[in-house]
Design goal:
The structure is a homodimer. Chain A contains twelve helices and 15 strands. By secondary structure, chain A is of the alpha+beta class. Chain A has three domains: 3-74, no CATH class; 103-162, ATP-grasp fold, A domain (Dna Ligase, domain 1), CATH 3.30.1490.20; 166-358, ATP-grasp fold, B domain (D-amino Acid Aminotransferase, Chain A, domain 1, 2-Layer Sandwich), CATH 3.30.470. Chains A and B meet through α1, α2, α11 and β14 of A and α1, α2, α11 and β14 of B.
């Protein structure tokens, strides 16, 4: 999804991917298949480009530091990216910045969890592996002392967090250039199922303006405080009392910003490119009062194109994005976007399309 | 520009281009360098695809007919495309459809031109080579008997046309699927300089609704009458009396529709793909009250990126599209687009950006 704005702006985008069947490798003319985690391939690739950036956070920090030592421009830099790669490190930074976050502590066994639970008012507590989690993996909501065992199996540090009753989840997405220039996208509502984002509404319906502003300021403060370059997505809880708590962050174009491809003047992908090149950033303004994005999650239908004619006939204004991935249950294999005025009408249209594509409904 | 919607819709787009430095070859993963006019390369390429389409009209008709005879799905088909490839053939079809067109006749020498001029009320008359013209090449406005000599030098048939005093040029763009389904984009004003489109305003400012409707109906009638599949752009004169006359047509995504990439729910490129695949077409609705597109024509500045920081800083909402072409004077090497409400403000912004990129102004 970085490719279209790269082409439009004359940016010579090259992609290093783990496999020739990766989405980007299928469509980008200049791609190299190699090991993103092996310094050999990574270094050979990096030597051919002016700026190195990422669409995930899995390149090991030590490799990034080695590249930086060799003079390669890595954006976001390894020091900033470390916060997105390690939830314990992230939370230490949140504390240092004085951000509102759920109570948390690094725990090293079930005894620690019980102590922590007692301190925060009892179960449930949330356990998260500090590294390697994604789309709900590496997260456990634990409601009694014995339930936390799985979290410690991976052998990586585990963070315990107080379970916060919340009204909904929000996301504040910003892009920041090395110059310090930054833009903030409208704050969105992110609907999660089993820890996976399934729907995004931009802007978050009914969010008071001062809360939206506070969320944008939080994200800008984090971007500045951590020295982020590129897109930063800050996932937030809106508590039952209307307070904001920072939950997680990501330093890359993020699922909660996919609506911006069709729904904003400048997409998160274009602004990520502009930011990592230290170019002036583009306007993040929405093109319509409301944009709804619904993820296409792999279901029973392995050929997503089957229902395309139905979807296109039923809703000529809907935008379909398929990722060229093989369909596996629950895998993000695409998304759909609709622009308009009425949240509920747009949600119904987007869900119908996503459900038809995946086979939840058989049109 | 067909590539982004192809990727989003999961269409496996392959490109045959004359050179590895062609714009499309630079960015599309699946590309083949070969001779578009040689049946060998064309046939080898066509055998690998389900549907063959074009972003220009220069593939010889006999080659297309040979492919069709071999069972290859060519869209638009050779019979329809012949009208866009030959202006004499096009005008015969206009007459057969009873369309409003300037008086015209195929002429075979300067004597014929003088006779024609006398019949249509005198000079100037317009001479057009029937084949091979593009962006003002192959067109002469002739104001005395000896001035038409150049038109006959190429040895191809020449069409003489009455010179029509017109208020402005319009373009009506439609997309049509083999099923007969068609969509009409808002009618635009196309500003020409030296026979080259330099600016497009969508919709055409101040165009009466009934005239706009009539223009759309004309384009739909031509698409249906000629059996067009894909995008059809009909260039029109709006005469001083407010009448419409058909000037030219193109059967491919057209410069007068480039505004739709950023300015419409479904771009002309996406609808061209949907049409040639016989998929349901997308909504052609504009995203803003006014969209202005200005071409970036090669000027004194050979590196278009030089002024990008200025352009991006000055106008964060402007969309820049560079084509990856080497800069030659007058060559279309990109375009810029802005969306908003006020035509004159948008024109000023778009022209400033285009002029800064090309070096007309030095910011």
């Amino acid at each position: 999804m970085l490719h279209p704005p790269a082409v439009a702006l004359g940016i010579d985008l090259a992609v290093l991917s783990g496999s020739a069947s990766d989405s980007a490798a299928q469509v980008v003319a200049r791609h190299v298949v190699g090991d993103e985690a092996g310094l050999g391939d990574l270094r050979a690739f990096a030597d051919q480009v002016d700026v190195l950036t990422f669409d995930h956070e899995h390149v090991p920090g030590e490799d990034l530091r080695a590249l930086e030592s060799a003079g390669i421009r890595v954006r976001p830099g390894s020091a900033a990216l470390a916060h997105a790669q390690d939830k314990a490190h992230m939370r230490a930074a949140f504390d240092a910045l004085g951000l509102p976050v759920p109570a948390h502590r690094v725990v090293s066994g079930e005894g620690d969890v019980a102590t922590f639970a007692a301190e925060v008012g009892g179960y449930p507590v949330v356990l998260k592996t500090a590294r390697g989690g994604y789309d709900g993996r590496g997260v456990w909501v634990v409601d009694h002392p014995d339930a936390g065992r799985d979290a410690f199996r991976a052998g990586v540090p585990v963070v315990a967090e107080a379970f916060v009753p919340f009204r909904r989840e929000l996301a504040a997405l910003v892009a920041r250039a090395p110059s310090g220039q930054a833009v903030a996208y409208p704050v969105v509502e992110s609907v999660q199922r089993d820890g996976i984002c399934v729907e995004v509404v931009a802007p978050a319906p009914g969010l008071p303006a001062d809360t939206a502003n506070a969320a944008q300021r939080l994200a800008l403060r984090i971007a500045d405080g951590l020295g982020v370059v590129g897109v930063l997505a800050v996932e937030l809880f809106e508590t039952d009392e209307g307070q904001l708590l920072v939950n997680e962050l990501a330093m890359r174009p993020h699922n909660t910003g996919h609506w911006s491809i069709d729904g904003a003047v400048t997409s998160q992908f274009e602004n990520h490119l502009r930011a990592v090149l230290d170019w002036p950033l583009g306007a993040p303004n929405p093109l319509a009062p409301v944009t709804v994005m619904v993820n296409v999650l792999g279901g029973s239908r392995t050929d997503l194109a089957t229902a395309l004619p139905h979807v296109m006939t039923r809703d000529p204004a809907l935008k379909v994005h398929l990722y060229g991935k093989s369909v596996r249950p629950g895998r993000k294999v695409g998304h759909v976007t609709v622009l308009g005025d009425d949240v509920e009408e747009l949600r119904a249209r987007a869900w119908h399309a996503a459900d038809a594509l995946t086979g939840v409904i058989d049109p």
